[in-house]
Amino acid sequence: MPSARATAIGFVAIxxxxxxxxxxxxxxATPPFLLTALTFAIAxxxxxxxxxxxPGGLAKxxxxxxxxxxxxxxxxxxxxxxxxxLRLSPPAEASLVAYLWPxxxxxxxxxxxxxxxxxxxxxxxLCGLAGAALLIGGRGAGLxxxxxxxxxxxxxxxxxxxxxxxxVTGRLLAHVPTQALSGFCLATAxxxxxxxxxxEPTVWPASTGEWLAVTALGLGPVGLAFFAWDVGMxxxxxxLLGVAAYAAPLLSTLLLVAFGYAAxxxxxxxxxGLIVGGALLATLRRPRxxxxxxxxxx
Length: 298
Prior knowledge:
Elements: H1 3-17, H2 20-25, H3 32-52, H4 65-88, H5 91-98, H6 101-108, H7 119-138, H8 150-169, H9 181-199, H10 208-235, H11 238-244, H12 247-258, H13 266-283
Helix pairs in contact: 1-10, 1-11, 1-12, 3-9, 3-10, 4-5, 4-8, 4-9, 5-7, 5-8, 6-7, 6-8, 6-11, 7-11, 7-12, 7-13, 11-13, 12-13
């Protein structure tokens, strides 16, 4: 697959993740691990249906155990530590620490064969992180990190490292078909169900609208998004996608404002500017030097 096409598919994941907060708000009081189990079950079932209609069918799920460890460890590990962070630390601060993953993707990409990290990529990612901080802090009473929540912040950092490592090392597993992700989603759903039984009260979606929101999550930001991200990481521009990932909190905030869940503010405007500016900085290319030698005389 051409890199430009794979990168464009990766952008689809970022667009879908921007609807995550809005759709999650519409699911009502469904606890996080139960919601994770439901949405990943929907994503896995939909993925299996698609895989069954493609060449090779469900045989694509037959992968070595290290591939399964990578896939399930990335999907479930990220969500487990993220929800743990939300339980043990303030949501705004935990979300900001967790949103180090795009920056880490940009930094980790330098270790990939044939890749080179340019200063513009790191600066663009830092601008995106600053913009995300303004957006996340602007939704509440600002950010106030305290020593009493160090375990929660550690869990948030763990989820950022896990997702960045999962994403970047996906390039080393480019031979693994994306259809295999269906099995990883179902395994993640099973593990999330176990965590729900152990840690949460059971509160099912209370209305048809809430069930529709759960279904939309399973098909969109928890379903198609992970498959699109898999393609982007395996075959696209990893550094550019890492920087562009900061568009997700930007678009998410704009959607929350549009639907009345948040109010516009200066922090929103400045955060938008930093994220857009960081993305533009990361995409700038140094002009090629013209050869100092003129055309040879005939």
